[in-house]
Amino acid sequence: MAEPDEGTVEALAARILGLPPAPLRLRIAVAGPPGAGKSTLARALVDRLNRDAARAALVPMDGFHLDNAVLDARGLRARKGAPETFDGLGVLRMIERLGQDPEVVIPGFDRARDIAIAGAAVVEPGHRIAVVEGNYLLLDDDPWRRLHPLWDLSVMLSPPVDVLRQRLIDRWLAYGHDPAAAEARALGNDIPNALRVVEGSLPADLVLRD
Predict the structure, then answer these.
(1) Domain limits of the chain?
(2) Sign of CA dihedral 142, 144, 145, 150
(3) How many helices (H) and strands (E) does the chain have?
(4) Is pLDDT above 80 for 113?
(5) CB atoms within 10 A of CB 50
(6) Which CATH superfamily is domain 6-208 in?
(7) 116 SS3 class
(8) Of 112, 133, 116, nearest in space to 175 by CA
(9) Which of 51, 108, 131, 154 fits a 20 to 30 Å CA distance from 15?
(10) Percent of the chain surpassing pLDDT 90
């Protein structure tokens, strides 16, 4: 994924640094469909905030993927990445804890091995900003909609669907799939998930379009 526009990152950082301070830490949502560039933007934003000694932590949602064995038992393996293939309540509890607990241990996701990893990172007491990135952080569906009032600022990335389609095909090509398999993975699962985000999310404070 291309690096985000520097002006966009600067503007977002300024907006966050201008927010009223939270009692413990600010919780910032970077949401959007698969292929929108959430991870890239969130990493760049955390790097920018930390240049100003803002003590920001990156918090990905992907560590709450259900394990493939659980998905197989539920008949959901082919839909991996859809909202029902995540521990949505686990995400909710983590976001709640980010506003309550000085230290929060968070899971990660190893995309190469396709597995979630418990205890992959720590949001420390000194972190005053948590930048959370994920597809369904604004989804208007239970339990995801319960996240909406917890955000101090929410950002939705919303590129055109044809742009997403090509990015998602390119992603699967990069993972070694042949062109036919890459297109099938993108159109059979990723694009339906993307449309669910685009059509079914609650309003964000900011919307960024390509």
Answers:
(1) 6-208
(2) positive
(3) 7, 7
(4) yes
(5) 16
(6) P-loop containing nucleotide triphosphate hydrolases (3.40.50.300)
(7) strand
(8) 112
(9) 108
(10) 71
Q: Is 75 left (phi over 0), alpha (psi -120 to 50) or beta?
A: left
Interior/surface letters 5-41, b for 16+ CB within 10 angstroms, e for the rest: eeeebeebbeebeeeeeeebbbbbbbbbbbbbbbbbb
Hey, what are 180's tokens?
């036919």
pLDDT tens sequence across 149-204: 999 999 999 988 888 888 888 877 887 788 887 777 777 788 889 889 999 999 99
Q: Which residue has the tokens 């669907």?
A: 161
pTM value?
0.91
Could you tell me if 75 and 126 are in contact, meaning their C-beta atoms sit under 8 angstroms apart?
A: no
The mean pLDDT value for 92-97 works out to 98
pLDDT at 203: 97
